[in-house]
Design goal:
single chain; mainly alpha
Length: 180
């Protein structure tokens, strides 16, 4: 009887090897595993953006809390104003990046989503640059929106960070006028 027990094959637990074994063997994940990984990557991207937005909001609170002067009295090219412009440009880019993650990420392949995570983060950080460019346009009167006060500058920086194409269009328009 003991020989029969030893000769009997062990019972199989499941048809597919566990996830870690498949990864170590280089086997392709099942479809639901890819969806789980895609959802996890999307969640990680959104958490990264939310954390970055929180840090920027804390910077803005610190900028306003450390001075008694109202925002309108900050010097045009002072460090507080420039940090505010950078912050609002980055917030606009973060908002844009979060919106663009909606449905396209879930349909993308995993390797595209991994690279999208880097692109999303860099897009959020680099959103400050169009904000600064729009601020320079506003200060130089290339972009004429009336009196250039800081609250208007922050709003323009947010819009420029959200849509860098807008800044490019203004720059191309200005370059076209100079060429004529």
């Amino acid at each position: 009887m003991a020989e029969e027990e030893l000769a009997a094959p062990p019972a199989r637990r499941s048809a597919a090897p566990p996830r870690r074994a498949r990864r170590l063997l280089g086997l392709r994940p099942r479809r639901h595993d890819r969806v789980d990984l895609g959802s996890r990557l999307l969640r990680d991207q959104l958490w990264t953006l939310a954390l970055l937005a929180l840090l920027i909001l804390l910077l803005l609170v610190a900028l306003t809390a450390t001075t008694r002067a109202p925002v309108q009295e900050w010097p045009a090219w002072g460090y507080r104003t420039l940090l505010g412009v950078f912050s609002f440009g980055a917030l606009g880019a973060i908002f844009s990046a979060a919106r663009s993650l909606k449905s396209s990420s879930l349909r993308a392949r995993i390797h595209a989503q991994v690279s999208d995570e880097r692109v999303t983060l860099s897009r959020a950080v680099l959103g400050a640059l169009p904000g600064l460019a729009a601020y320079a346009f506003l200060q130089s009167k290339v972009l004429n929106l009336g009196d250039a006060d800081n609250s208007k500058a922050f709003a323009i920086a947010f819009i420029a960070g959200f849509s860098e194409r807008l800044v490019l269009k203004v720059a191309e328009t200005f370059a076209g006028q100079k060429a004529k």
